[in-house]
Design a protein that fits this description.
alpha+beta, 4 helices, 13% strand, globular
Length: 181
């Protein structure tokens, strides 16, 4: 792995967690709520701190770090492992999921290209973290980028209207006060 994409303890990173094939999974509240619940679990139990986030239909943007002596990559690995299994299980059992067969077919298709998968692959392997500690200007730029993502995708007119974003002051995700980082 290139030095460019390595995480280190104490770092603040912009990361993107992407569904394989850029498949639009996060179009249903139940999947988004699972993501929020599990990120909150990681905040409460694993030392994760999130400064900004946005759950787009096929990916999640985070500006995050970890407390203490924990690597962010370890927390994200566990998060991705748990959420991939849970979301696939939800898709398998949800009788109202109109794309169930297609989604499972696609996750199975992408799994065959990764020897670590037994049946399905939900997340792309890499998060391509960008180190933000070295440049405070990037922090504000990335927060703006994250918050403007649903606006540019024409999902909402104003960033604060998007429910699954730190731009929305009523978010259920326990984010760190922006000015406290």
């Amino acid at each position: 792995m290139s030095e460019k994409y390595k995480m280190y303890k104490g770092g603040l990173f912009f990361v993107t967690l992407t569904v394989v094939g850029w498949i639009d999974v996060f179009t249903r509240a139940q999947y988004n709520d699972l993501i929020i619940d599990n990120l909150n679990y990681c905040i409460d139990k694993k030392g994760l701190e999130i400064i900004a986030f946005c759950i787009m239909p096929s990916h999640i943007h985070l500006i995050a770090r970890t407390k203490e002596d924990i690597l962010l990559s370890d927390v994200l690995r566990d998060f991705k492992s748990f959420t991939s299994k849970k979301i696939i299980s939800m898709i398998e059992t949800n009788q109202e999921e109109s794309r169930r067969e297609w989604l499972l077919y696609m996750f199975k298709y992408f799994a065959k290209y990764n020897k670590h998968n037994t049946m399905y692959q939900f997340w792309q392997q890499n998060n391509h973290p960008i180190d933000l500690i070295s440049n405070n200007k990037w922090i504000e730029e990335k927060i703006t980028y994250i918050h403007q993502n649903p606006v540019k995708a024409m999902i909402v007119h104003e960033d604060y209207q998007f429910v699954y974003s730190s731009a929305n002051r009523y978010t259920k995700l326990k984010i760190v006060d922006r000015f406290g980082f």
